[in-house]
Amino acid sequence: MHDEIEIRAERPEERLATESLVREAFWNVYRPGCLEHFVLHEFRSRPEFCPALNLLLIRHGEIIGQAMYVKNVLRTSSQEELPILTLGPICIHPAHQRKGFGKLLLDQSLVLAAETEAVGVFLEGNVGFYGKSGFVVASTMGVHYMDEPADEPVPYFLGKELKEGVLQGLPMQYRVPEGYFVDEKLAEEFDRQFPPKERLRLPGQLFSGA
Ligand SMILES: CC(C)(COP(=O)(O)OP(=O)(O)OC[C@H]1O[C@@H](n2cnc3c(N)ncnc32)[C@H](O)[C@@H]1OP(=O)(O)O)[C@@H](O)C(=O)NCCC(=O)NCCS
User: Fold this and answer.
1) How far is ligand 1, taken at its centre, from the CA of residue 125, in Å?
2) Mean pLDDT of the region 141-169
3) pTM for the full model?
């Protein structure tokens, strides 16, 4: 199953192919169409982007998976900062999903993430997938999402420690990096360079779209 697989950083000439993959994987999953390929595109020129952690999973020479991390911080109530990473988007091409490639990519990316100064990785996602790689609901680690009250856990906000014991104890606040909030009109314009795809409203989507 995992023969001929390479996980490595994206090369400049692979940018468009990666964006096409991200578009295929996220299209109509969380909203009609998707923004994730534009998010990746925009992040590449931001200082918090980590090129060494902008990873591809290549199987038999074909890019079938992608994962990116950005630098972020957790803040204590006294505004002390701890370096962390935010993960996402991460995806596997729809033709290759549920065959273990996502977990393989996630686990390998976490090994590389652990070599940085970051003390943990945080993301918004489904604990059904990330839980198998050691992620837990972040509020159980004392880490709270944006301005949500500390006593109202956000079940999709997940975290994993990279440096043992560092996060225990103090309550910390997490903020979603600004780069994830892209302009939907600009995203639509960006999307026009790709082959047309129908935007559908489907059950289970989190956002209704424009
Ligand atoms: C989510 C995604 C990256 C998972 O990759 P994958 O290769 O399909 O997943 P894997 O086969 O490695 O799954 C690993 C484990 O997670 C579980 N899992 C995978 N996707 C899941 C999902 N969407 N919900 C719940 N559990 C999931 C699987 O059951 C599997 O465990 P098991 O095989 O022991 O049962 C992939 O399906 C994808 O690209 N989805 C669309 C984009 C997306 O939603 N990305 C994540 C954004 S948070």
Assistant:
1) 10
2) 88
3) 0.95
